[in-house]
Amino acid sequence: MPIGERAAVEALEAFLNAHFHKRARELMPSAEALRRSVEYSLYSGGKRFRPLVAFLTAELLDVDFNRVTPHAAAVELVHTYSLIHDDLPAMDDDMYRRGVYTNHILFGEDTALLAGDALLTEAFYVIGENYKDIPELGLELTRLLAEAAGFSGMVAGQVADLQMARGSIAVPAEDLLRMHERKTGALIRYASEGVAVLARRPQTEQMLIREFGAKLGLAFQIADDLLDFNPDRPEKNGLPYILGEKKTRELLSSVSHDCETILLKFNGRASQLGELVKKNESRRR
């Protein structure tokens, strides 16, 4: 049964609200600042792109949305943690995100750091709590999420991004793409791949979905680079600066086409995922 973007986001918000309402009752009064810090960033008006990928993959693979919702929530918790940490003075040192103050500006660096830690670990709690009736799938989701978010995934991508930003010259496009595949693409890949695990699909289909998610993650970051490109003050480690705006748009088109080619292997059942690919490709300010 198809699910629209609005319904998918509403399902996610309902789950997160219920989950944190219950978990907040377990906090000691002195940890109230942690709750406020977590909720400030979690409900700050993000696009919920990664959970949406999970829900639309569930539509493709005919998985019950209630089964997918905790997985989608775990993805968003990890994503939110990464944003809080990215904004810290030791990282990007940003004062604003999405037009409002970043977490550490309002709650202090110490609380913001711990809020990020809490969100990351809470993602694994959500998986363990909600998939304990199917422990073999919960274990595989845990492994894949740790792979996407951890040592060789998103964290490695963030380290590479910091090193590139501190360099005095632009890096090769190939290195930048590898960084994007880890920092941004890995979690989007997991959002899609985890649903294939929950669907108990054959290994060949799981690998196709993994490849699709990785390609979509890369396309998402390329589109972001184009949106952020300012010809008057170009970022030296942005793809438009390194490749030129025209070639970067051509690359986005090529990667998006790869996504659509993979979806064709699912007998035309991926209409909403295909629309998401097109919508990402055509994103404008």
Summarize this structure as a short list of keywords or feature phrases.
Farnesyl Diphosphate Synthase, mainly alpha, 285 residues
How would you portray this structure in words?
There is one protein chain. About 75% of the residues lie in helices and about 0% in strands. The chain has about 280 residues and is mainly alpha-helical. The chain has a single domain (about 5-280), classed as Farnesyl Diphosphate Synthase (Orthogonal Bundle), CATH 1.10.600. Helix 1 (about 5-25) crosses helix 4 (about 65-85), helix 10 packs antiparallel against helix 12 and helix 12 runs antiparallel to helix 13 (about 270-280).
Secondary-structure blueprint:
Elements: H1 5-24, H2 32-42, H3 49-61, H4 65-87, E1 96-97, E2 100-101, H5 103-107, H6 109-130, H7 135-149, H8 154-166, H9 173-198, H10 203-228, H11 239-243, H12 245-264, H13 271-281
Antiparallel strand pairs: 1-2
Helix pairs in contact: 1-3, 1-4, 2-6, 3-4, 3-9, 3-13, 4-6, 4-9, 6-7, 7-9, 8-9, 9-10, 10-12, 12-13
Query: Low-confidence parts lasting 5 or more residues at pLDDT below 50?
Result: none
- Structural class of the helices, strands and pairings? mainly alpha
Sheet with most strands: strand arrangement: 1-2
**Main sheet makeup:** 2 strands, antiparallel
Rounded mean pLDDT is 93
Distance between the ends: 32 Å
Strand content: under 5%
Question: What is the structure about, briefly put?
Answer:
The protein contains 13 helices and two strands; from the N terminus they run ααααββααααααααα. With 285 residues, it is mainly alpha-helical. The model has no long low-confidence stretch (mean pLDDT 93).
